[in-house]
Amino acid sequence: METLTKITSQISVQPISEMLNHVGHYGEFGGSFIPPVLEQPLQKLSEFFEKESKTESFKREFIHYLKTFVGRPTPLYYATRLSNYVGARIYLKREDLTHTGSHKINNTIGQILLAKRMGATEVIAETGAGQHGVATATAAALFGIPCKVFMGAIDMERQALNVHRMKMLGAEVIATEMGSKTLKDAVDAALGYYIEHPDSYYLLGSHVGPHPYPRMVGYFQSVIGNEARQQIISAEGILPSSIFACIGGGSNAIGLFSGFLSDSNTKIYGAEGGGELLPGKTAATLTFGKPSVFQGTNSYCLVDSEGVAVNSYSIAAGLDYPGISPQHAYLMQTARAQYIPVSDNEAIGAFRLLSKLEGIVPAIESSHAVALAAKILKNSGELAIINLSGRGDKDVGRVAL
Ligand SMILES: *Cc1c(COP(=O)(O)O)cnc(C)c1O
Fold first, then answer.
1. Is 284 helix (H, G, I), strand (E, B) or coil?
2. Confidence label for 182 from pLDDT (cuts 50, 70 and 90)
3. Residue 1: pLDDT above 60?
4. Does any ligand 1 atom lie closer than 6 A to the CB of residue 104?
């Protein structure tokens, strides 16, 4: 798919089409493992996306809302005091400055435009911490489309503020009482509803699930990497030696990485939610998981000895998911990217460090990327970019000294 650079110089999207065939395979990973009733709606969605996203009118509308509603392009900020502290030259890609405070809005705006153009009468979504739910409710309010958000009952208690935000935005929040009452159960509930109501639009929130979701989400999030690549070239005249992002499902990471995949001298690092770095107490799917089919796609998953998905654990709700994007599985297998777990304690340390050194309170998710970068870049003098996927107001209470 072509790039959008012709329309504006900075805001542009470019998917990673070379690595992906039309049924959504990334090497042996990806694809579509779904009940027969979803085959036709997802096929229709795939065809609609391929056709619509190439039209000038769609690109124009998407870029218009990214600019005027989301606040793009986001700055690429040179972090002087962090750089001095680490002994490297570190830029932060400021997704924390977007409307609603994280990269998730890039994807929800893209998909709500598809939903609107498909004539969907209702949008449904799943959410864990509530961040994707808020981003979806925001996008749905923007276009006046009714919105239902499925959320685990335990998550609703833990994330009460985001539940209030979604309701304020006009969404209906539906408690999931199944299983562990957290994100993976909310995904099951949303899929169940979608199976019964295939005319609704399922707005998936990360780089996971069956084709065409990883392809679509990767496309909408590629705006991050495209901007960052142009910004670092105009600031420094060269490409970074390394780039860093945290990995939950993998959407902010693929957004940044996609801008640099063909730059073979740029090393790529994903920071997994390591939790306590023990089996059963981690969300580091690529490090501790196994190749598995889970929630519609073939990728890695945290599983028990029978191969059944287990609950993940991370201090960061946005990283607390036992599955992972099929493209990240492929990038690990082909050694184009390295994935390293970061513990809860390391992330808390980085949260405090960035707040004090730069006056930027990062999301606890993004703090994983900061912690990994600080470790790998120590006294290297290297030029690097860290994706600051979101802001940390939501986490201050938890991490307070
Ligand atoms: C949801 C979230 C993540 C993790 O999701 P990805 O799809 O892996 O990007 C990371 N950071 C923030 C701030 C989030 O809200």
1. coil
2. confident
3. no
4. yes
Question: Is 394 noted as a catalytic residue in this protein?
Answer: no
Ligand 1 and 318: CB distance under 6 A: yes
Residue 12 binned pLDDT confidence (cut-offs 50, 70, 90): low
What was the pLDDT predicted at 202? 97
| pLDDT reported for residue 36 | 92
Is residue 262 among the annotated active site residues? no
Reported for 33-38, long-range contacts at CB under 8 A and 24+ positions apart, including other chains, are 33/210, 33/293, 33/296, 33/297, 33/298, 34/210, 34/296, 35/195, 37/195, 37/198, 38/191, 38/194, 38/195, 38/198, 38/210
Q: Is the CB of 341 under 6 A from ligand 1?
A: no
The reported pLDDT for the residue numbered 6 is 34
Domains and CATH numbers, the chain: 19-69+104-214 (3.40.50.1100), 71-101+222-399 (3.40.50.1100)
| 131-144 mean pLDDT | 97
Is pLDDT at 20 greater than 70 in this prediction? Answer: no
Which of 12, 53, 126, 358 is flagged as catalytic?
Answer: 126
Residue with the nearest Cα to atom 7 of ligand 1?
251
Cα 117 from chain centre: 24
Residue of the nearest CA to atom 3 in ligand 1?
318
Residue type, 142: L
DSSP structure string for 135-189: HHHHHHHHHT--EEEEEEHHHHHHTHHHHHHHHHTTPEEEEE-STTSSHHHHHHH
Band of pLDDT at residue 10, cut at 50, 70 and 90? low
User: Which residues face 344 on adjacent strands?
Assistant: none
Whether 159 lines ligand 1, by a CB cut-off of 6 Å, is no
Nearest one of 328, 324, 341 to 279, comparing CA atoms: 341
Segment 208-231, tens digit of pLDDT: 999 999 999 999 999 999 999 999
CB distance 273 to ligand 1 below 6 Å: no
Active site residue 382: no
Label residue 13 by pLDDT band (50, 70, 90): low
Closest Cα to atom 2 of ligand 1: 318
